[in-house]
Amino acid sequence: MKRTRSTLVGLLLAGLFLIAAEPVAAQSSINDQLIGDLNNVLLYAAIPITLLVQVILLYAVIKFRNNDEPRPTQENRRLEITWTVATAIVLLFVGLASYQVMADPFITHQHDDVPGEDDVEIDVVAYNYGWDFIYEDEGIESTGEAVIPTDTEVYFNVTADAEQNSYIHGFHVPDLGLKQDANPGETNTVKTEVYDEGEYQGYCSKYCGVGHSNMYFTLDAVGEDEYEDWVTEQQANGDDEEAEEEEMDEEAEEEEAAEDAEDAEEEEMTDDEAEEEEEEAEDTEDADDAEDDAGEDGE
């Protein structure tokens, strides 16, 4: 009996220790923090319930083990009502705790939640098999890599390329707690606020075909000043590329104009040669007619 009591006391002390020992884990984003906090709350609720069930199980095994004078069980309505009400309270607690997190705009996007002036908005386009990141306001487009500022709300508008007949993909960054479906012809928004600078690996969470294993991308979280410098650099590179494209277009137009001029010159020369040949043919015909007339006069 003493051994049984010692075992039960040890289990209770272990449970209390687990409850008091809060796990220390660094959250890199507000999304990860919200999900982690919910997991901790549910864990703290599950530990005492699990211990209580195990204690009752051990008590029943020891108390009602096989003996020479077994006693039949009796109905206990009060006990049945107690565990039914307790179960309902636990389920209500879990539901409310989960709803508070799932209803947060960082977890489930709200349609009336639009980016502010200081926020960053990025269009994420998935295709077979890669990722494009489009900063429409900044006029920047990159493939396979996106740069975002820390301590700033960032909105990702996730979709899949419908023109390419793209498959269904999944935008997923595990270390930031980000996950959103990328469906062709449909835009789903997810937002985040990253706390720590660094590179975060993302990938496609849907098995989408033979190129699925290559659908990786990188989110590079940097400070606000570094982000502004990156935007300025990308815009300058974009202007240089536009200038090069314009120069190439002008050269192509000049080459096309030169080819048209050569074609016109060749056509003009062809027309002149045709006129000369026609005149020579007429002169030859006139000469033949004159010879024929002279022959007739001689006869």
TrEMBL record:
Annotated region described as Disordered, given as residue ranges = 230-299
What does the record give as EC number? 7.1.1.9
Residues forming coiled coils: none
Q: Localized where?
A: Membrane
Its primary localisation, in coarse terms, equals membrane
Into which EC class is this enzyme placed?
Answer: translocase
What is the protein named? cytochrome-c oxidase
